[in-house]
Design brief:
Layout: E1 6-9, E2 12-15, E3 21-26, E4 31-37, H1 41-59, H2 63-79, H3 81-92, H4 96-120, E5 124-127, E6 130-136, E7 139-143, H5 149-163, E8 166-170, H6 176-188, E9 196-198, H7 203-212, E10 218-222, H8 225-237, E11 241-245, E12 251-254, H9 260-272, E13 284-288, H10 292-306, H11 316-331, E14 335-338, E15 354-359, H12 364-367, E16 374-380, H13 383-390, E17 399-402, H14 406-413, E18 422-423, E19 441-442, H15 447-452, E20 455-461
Parallel strand pairs: 7-8, 7-10, 8-9, 10-11, 12-13, 12-17, 13-16, 15-16, 17-18
Antiparallel strand pairs: 1-2, 3-4, 5-6, 6-20, 11-19, 14-15
Helix pairs in contact: 1-7, 2-4, 2-5, 2-6, 3-4, 3-6, 4-5, 9-10
Bound molecules: NADP nicotinamide-adenine-dinucleotide phosphate and magnesium ion.
Amino acid sequence: MKAHDGMYIDGAWRPAAGRDTIAVVNPADEQVIAEVPAGGAEDIDAAVRAARAALPAWAATAPAERAARIAALRDVLVARKDEIAETVTAELGAPLPFSQAVHAGVPILVAGSYAGLAASYAFEEKVGNSTVYAEPVGVVGAITPWNYPLHQIVAKVAPALAAGCTIVLKPAEDTPLTAQLFAEAVHEAGVPAGVFNLVTGLGPVAGQALAEHEGVDLVSFTGSTAVGRKIGATAGAAVKRVALELGGKSANVILPSADLAKAVGVGVANVMGNSGQTCSAWTRMLVHTSQYDEAVALAAEAAAKYGDRIGPLVNAKQHARVRGYIEKGVAEGARLVAGGPEAPREQGYFVSPTVFADVTPEMTVAQEEIFGPVVSLIRYEDGDDALRIANGTVYGLAGAVWAGDEAEAVAFARRMDTGQVDINGGRFNPLAPFGGYKQSGVGRELGSHGLAEYLQTKSLQF
Ligand code: NAP
Ligand code: MG
């Protein structure tokens, strides 16, 4: 695979300060496909200085000009869609059709939505005798994970550009090639030098240096709750803004009036897509006791059908971790009805689509984020019981409710402690705010709410 041996800083690819590198591995066959530089504090400092120098001019551009650059960026992503999909498949392992539809397709939608929002957003508002201006927060430090490598970059960079912020991105070490491709796209789109900068590197080195840098005004992080906690503490101590998009353990609540077969089928597919490496996946399926056995049979069948269409997990560590969780589920008394901890292939970090029945709400597999193709079926007695179980984790990122009529599903969804709920299989909306209640995070991404994260207000009184 094509890789740059430098950092994209101030509009050009420049050599890294040090000599350390990161080997990029294809998780489907465990082969090294490229090497990229592992940046450190010096590279981060150079990137933050470039972003700071570019800030006044970019912040002062008319929203229509920023909208035009984001639209151009979207067009480059469209033109390079196949290359994006192939790159994500090579370094993340997602099956190519999924990479094309989701890993390349969704960022195009999101970039398009911010081209529109940059042009239409009310950056100025009259409130009584005041004029309130929405101004850019400043220099953004963006730290992103590997599971939706381009989406998570675009969900930060597009609104930051729309707001008039400048950016330093530290992408996940497992998926730096997608990030390099994105930097090329930003360049091709004619975004001025220094507005967007990329430093590849390791989390505890480059990521930490970025989060701690005094020249960064806002840290926007997506990843694990453990690292998010640390970044939140660092940002708090420095009194800088922080947005955290963290883990989830979302509930798929199937009420007795629902179309059971559809709810179970869509629910299993929701977890298996991207091999279960989705923070908002509905990993707990809640079924009324009267329908429980039927749901278990349907889920086992759906998982078995998934079979070979599932991609590998991203790396050896995640492979070991997910298989460890499956073993723990068995040890704690859950019943395997599909899949299991054995690796289905000799090569690659594969795990079979796995379904657990007889899961109780306190079990580890019902409480902790597994981040693999594992769904747990939990039985409930009545609506209050279902709600107690649905809300009974430290997380609150997403969820689903299925019922015979929409009003019944909505009434239940309104009682859930979570940031986003799909009603009877509702479709993805790139304008809907996405983010967590409780320990799933702080702040929102996407749409106008996502844009507001990159703005601060100034009021003038007359
Ligand atoms: P992670 O360590 O939180 O990684 C997210 C990003 O933070 C990466 O760019 C990472 O760099 C960086 N990072 C790591 N340590 C850092 C530090 N001390 N300071 C600043 N940045 C730092 O997540 P992971 O290790 O890849 O995955 C572990 C678990 O996190 C998964 O099993 C899953 O449960 C959860 N996760 C959640 C999401 C989500 O979307 N909510 C996404 C990914 C993972 P490196 O790539 O070099 O580590
Ligand atoms: Mg990590």
